Amino acid sequence: MSEWVFGINPVGEALSGRRRRPLELVAAREGNARLQELVAAAEKAGVAVRRCSRAEMDRLAGGVRHQGVALRIEPFAYVDFTDLLGLCQADVRPGFILALDGITDPHNLGALVRSAAAAGCRGVILPKDNSCPVTAVVDRAAAGALEHIPLCRVVNLARSLDDLKQAGFWVYGLAGEGDQDLFGADLSGPLVLVAGSEGSGLRPNVRRRCDFLLSIPMSGGVGSLNVSVATGIALFEVVRQRRLCA
What CA–CA distance (Å, rounded) separates 190 from 94? Predict the structure, then answer.
């Protein structure tokens, strides 16, 4: 079993990542300097390299934008919930987890994972049902971030939030109608930030588990933001507050 990663940046990140072993690099015979750097990096790491025509690469990618390079890697492995909790408890920094309640668009999922990794989250939790799994599209949208942050799939997200609360986490849900301003909330302690689905937001049973519902103040007649944009703003507000407290 193996999976494919396409594109210069995702392949570069996957070659340098530690979560999945690279198995084979496929590169177009004609390519730019960046592509040649990837070939050299793969050869240095002992990864098999195969050259092919652009037409062959197009067939391999099946419509995915590949930029002349693909990497075959081990299948994506989700972490267990208990392992993720253990990672947080072993960290001297306050726990910081992103939970996604029903994200179905692979581009949104990839963008959210990348933002979570950039903000220093210890992991991302998503439900097994009614949620997009990791696919090649997600991998490309995450631009290699899947190699740097654990993802955990759970049967019951609401129950997992209860477990995190018992472990000392505060649960903050993002909701346009939330009664607490994101920028006025204290986000310096151990927390789970929960983002809802693209269409309906947080499900009722997940919403009930939230200690606070946070809203982002907006003006100019804009009523809402894309979930990946809104979550990115909230993630880096956590980063900002923790830097002030450091």
Answer: 5
